[in-house]
Amino acid sequence: MKQGTTIYLYELAWILPSIAIPIGMLVALVVTAFGVGVHLPSDAGRVEPTKVAETPPFDKPGVFMVGPNRYEARMIAGIWSFTPNEIRVPAGSTVTFVATSRDIVHGLHIHRANVNVMLLPGQIARVTTRFDRPGEYPFVCHEYCGIAHHTMWGKVVVEPRQ
Ligand code: CUA
After folding, report:
1. What is the DSSP string of 85-149?
2. Nearest residue by C-alpha to atom 1 in ligand 1
3. Among the four residues 47, 64, 80, 90, which has the most C-beta atoms within 10 Å?
4. Ligand 1 atom closest to the CA of 146, numbered from 1
5. pLDDT tens across 136-157, in order?
6. What is the tens place of the pLDDT at every residue in 76-89?
């Protein structure tokens, strides 16, 4: 092989991956956004963090039926617990989590469900998912929030339909 051809192939070996990798990332982005439903949670409004407990809908945290098979779970995160820390819904329910933090940055990640949001003080997070299979879906705070971060957890209990 001539000297010139070797350099050309060597350059090509770098150029092709540098084109292929961004294209691959773009494809992954499109697939996860539209195929798997991974998306940024909506910024569903603002709330004064020091007045969360007095501000609707967080003045009444809990699970509320908002339609046939539809529920809204209003949650407050604070060091180091969720209010409420247990959410009960029947199987086949679509649940919208409306959550915020009353102090510092927390997170809400529900195992085996498409819920993974940051809970920022002052910002309301809103995310909707469906629970078809009965069982327990533990949730955790996934943003390090201090000494007892690891104790900040709860569960969604999906009850079988009668
Ligand atoms: Cu709250 Cu970690």
Report:
1. SEEEEETTEEEEEEEEESSS-EEEEETTTTEEEEE-BTEEEEEEEEE-S-EEEEEE--S--STTG
2. 106
3. 47
4. 2
5. 999 999 999 999 999 999 999 9
6. 999 999 999 999 99
